Amino acid sequence: MKKAPTIAFMGAGSMAEALIAGMTKTLYQPEQIVVTNRCNIERLSYIQETYQVRIEIDKEKAIKEAEIIVLAMKPKDAAEAITSVAEAINEQQLIISVLAGVTTETIVSLIGKRVAVVRAMPNTSAAVGQSATAISGGQYANAAHLAVAKELFETVGTVAVVEEQHLHAVTGLSGSGPAYVYYLVEAMEQAADEIGLDRAIAKDLILQTLIGSAHMLKATKKHPASLRKEVTSPGGTTEAGIGVLERYRYQEAVVACIKRATERSQELGKALMPFPSAK
Question: What are phi and psi of 101, to 5 degrees?
Answer without folding.
Answer: 85, -15
